[in-house]
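2024-03-11 09:14:02 INFO queue: dequeued item DUF1016 family protein, len=361
2024-03-11 09:14:02 INFO validating residues
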Amino acid sequence: MDKRFSDIIQLIQQSRNNAIKAVNIELINLYWNIGAYVKQKLTVAEWGDKTVNELADFIQKNNPELKGFNRAGLYRMIQFYETYAGTKFVATARTQIQNIEKQEAKIVATVGRQLQPQPQDIRKTILAQLSWSHHRTIFSRCKTEEEREFYLRMSIKENYSVRELDRQINASLFERVMLGKVNIASLPKDFSQDIMNAFKDSYVFEFLNLPEPHSESDLQKGLIKQMKNFILELGRDFIFIDEEHKVQVGNSDFYIDLVFYHRGLQCLVAFELKTEKFKPDHLGQLNFYLEALDRNVKKPHENPSIGILLCKDKENEVVEFALSRSLSPAMVAEYKTQLPDKKLLQQKLHEIFENSNTEDI
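2024-03-11 09:14:37 INFO prediction written
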């Protein structure tokens, strides 16, 4: 492409992207208001299921170019409204919702009176930042308000495609992150919240299709080959730098399995891969690599390097003891080569919350 005109092409593409975002915002706002309107009609028994069918048929007959307004589509809009009407995401619209609810008793008592809900504006909420396909995936698959909020914010932060979002739900990202936070006490106390938010307690590499058992070389080669999926699992702030990254100390050469750069933390991140259970002596090797990176590779404006030890398995108590005397910012995480049992993770999470509530009492 002629470099003289690249700025013009960039302006056109940016304008096109802005237009698509604007259309999506209006569409999400429209679906919200249709859901609110029909929900109120159904609530006061002014409309029934038959009326919703008639509305879908009416739209199809008179405006066949309008897609997504069949019976199933209208009920998804109702579900969308019902799911988030009571959440803080739509706090700006909540006052209007409450005013409508206060009128319900009067409306029910007034035979034949028409309910006319006032349009609500959710265009400045986080709901308007995602596509309808994202929303359908989240409110149809996520069971709790906390889980829905988690995937809403992660989709925006990591710019997930619908396919990537679906994969993260399958991989139980919410449950793994919540369970990982329970183990946060094992990290050094001087770790910042930003560092703790940037990494997970466990990673899922089901996309590698590795046999059991497998070698560290197989794991490394698989992650390099599937770098796009690996970055998706890590987070989009990670930038891959090198594999078998050589660091020279004295007259000896040493090789770090994988080296990344984290844009948000502005530091190098060294990954060491272990296809066995965590052992405390693994940390000695990782700390040595971090010292070499900081002395010979890190730039003056960058923060100290962080090490991640990816192990096949680990015991939290052993990790806590090993990290308590560690001088370098290092973390120990486990990896799985198969999708985790979502129900089992949910059960563990539920048990932790139950025990926490019992202790409070």
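2024-03-11 09:14:37 INFO annotate: Confidence is low (pLDDT under 50) at residues 104-115.
2024-03-11 09:14:38 INFO item closed
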